């Protein structure tokens, strides 16, 4: 793990303080919130030979980024009915609320749904909306949807995904944006320039995974097609000019520390640049990506930043405020949440 730095805040309980800090999660995949125990329940419903808990946990073990993608695929293949999606959505909101998350902007992969062909996207959208609304009523945490295309499935399939998002937004205002995930090596952001322009014209906000498993050129490409937030941006520190641009423009970075280690995109915790980015004035936010697959969650990422990277509690308050500002919430809600963050003392 990274160095341990003495903290001036140790007279209070850091984890308790951070749990109560109002937090916004900007980079989390709905399909990646499924716990091994939940996967067993899904497998018992749908598989001829159901997974044991040990076998389910083994699925969450992998050696590299491609291994992670295969794990993600194996988990999503157990989502067979719209009710499965309603269930995992409700469970996600419940889990987020327990960590002090007040709002989340959640990726849902229409790209995988279309590729699998088992379920109609409108049926899944209706189901996750039921889960979202029940969860917000019961736990108070709001959710927006970011519709994700899988970049290595190609431009034509991404076009289908983004146009579905634009069409469904009229019925579901909780759909706020689009993004591209998947294997950066097989789908440069440049390929999606025209589609991003079309999505922007349709009123959708733009995000992109970039600089997770590829170099800074991938981040430049995401910026150049209009991405308003960058997911990961792990390799930005390889390019001083890019670091300057990110700081100058205050382009929000959806950073996922534990995820980067578990996928092998960063060799170890000591090497992760999250504090370097923060100290350089970049707009850092902390996120969990696919929590049970990485053995962490958003609260865990904040605790990790405090204990292992030398962030003070006041600096983590700033990180929390960054996430509010970087969200796609309307101005009045942002202002209300920023005031909550600023006034929070616990």
UniProtKB/TrEMBL annotation:
SUPFAM superfamilies, sorted: Metallo-dependent hydrolases
Query: Could you tell me what this protein is called?
Result: Adenosine deaminase
Reported cofactor(s): Zn(2+)
Entry similarity comment: Belongs to the metallo-dependent hydrolases superfamily. Adenosine and AMP deaminases family.
| The keyword Secreted is annotated on this UniProt entry | no
Molecular functions per Gene Ontology: deaminase activity; hydrolase activity, acting on carbon-nitrogen (but not peptide) bonds, in cyclic amidines; metal ion binding
InterPro entries in the cross-refs:
A_deaminase_dom, Ado/ade_deaminase, Metal_Hydrolase
List the keywords (alphabetical): Hydrolase, Metal-binding, Zinc
Q: Where does the source fall among the domains of life?
A: Bacteria
NCBIfam families this protein is in? aden_deam
Q: Where is the Adenosine deaminase domain?
A: 22-343
One Pfam family, short name = A_deaminase
Q: Which PANTHER family match?
A: ADENINE DEAMINASE
